[in-house]
Amino acid sequence: MIQGLIGKKVGMTQIFDESGRALGVTVIEAGPCFVTQVRTQERDGYQAVQLGFGESKRISKPEKGHLKSLPPLRHLREVKTTSTDDVETGQTVDVSIFEQGQTVDVQGTSKGKGFAGTVKRHGFRGGPKTHGQSDRLRAPGSIGATSTPGKVLKGKRMAGHMGNETVTVKGLSVARVDPARNLLLLEGSVPGANGGLVLIKKSAR
Questions:
Q1: Alpha-carbon gap, residue 191 to 205, rounded angstroms
Q2: Are 97 and 17 members of one domain?
Q3: Which of 26, 64, 181, 190 stands the most exposed, by the fewest C-beta atoms within 10 Å?
């Protein structure tokens, strides 16, 4: 069975469960996706399927050859599958592969914040507010070591571009599945802006 689906983040709202408790949920337009390629253990060394989502106005000649009789698809992603026996190219996959109460992992691209300092980007405390340090309030402080190693080590948390990174949120619960409208309601927040591409995968936990 296919273990994931490509979708688009619609936004957030709230619903009420059976006990009347309000739940903050993220609405995702998940699928329908087309199976564009099947990866097998014998040929590729692993089992997976390549899914296509969202129509594109124009695609390149190599993409046309790859998709063949399928419509021009904008996004292609690979997801795991437990078996490729019942999967074939051109097959349609929708939100019915998920069930209410199931746990999923969602991967998306976080909102880009541009250039940010260490206080905003990493949560640094900043310098003291007194004792004459009038211009060190949001500074990172010393970034170097002693004469050994005598350099700034790679990976040092410093100011720089914040956001616009691939983020995975794990353990979200499926609050509701609506196959008629291709909607998936997940309890909690999902990375990225409204309209952003997300990959929903069944959680291994």
A1: 20
A2: yes
A3: 181
Which tokens hold the place of 20?
A: 């009347």
In degrees rounded to 5, what are phi and psi of residue 76? -125, 130
Burial tier of 127 (Cβ tally within 10 Å: 0-12, 13-18, 19+): middle
Residues 21, 97 share a domain = yes
Structure tokens at 130: 């007194």
Which value, to the nearest 10 degrees, does the dihedral of the CA atoms of residues 62, 71, 67, 72 take?
30
Q: Tens digit of pLDDT for each residue in 9-45?
A: 999 999 998 888 899 999 999 979 989 888 888 888 8
State the residue range of the domain holding 105. 4-112+166-202
Whether residues 26 and 78 fall in one domain:
yes
Residue 179 corresponds to which amino acid?
P
- Find all residues with CB under 8 Å of 127, minimum gap 6, and list them: 133, 136, 137, 138, 139, 141
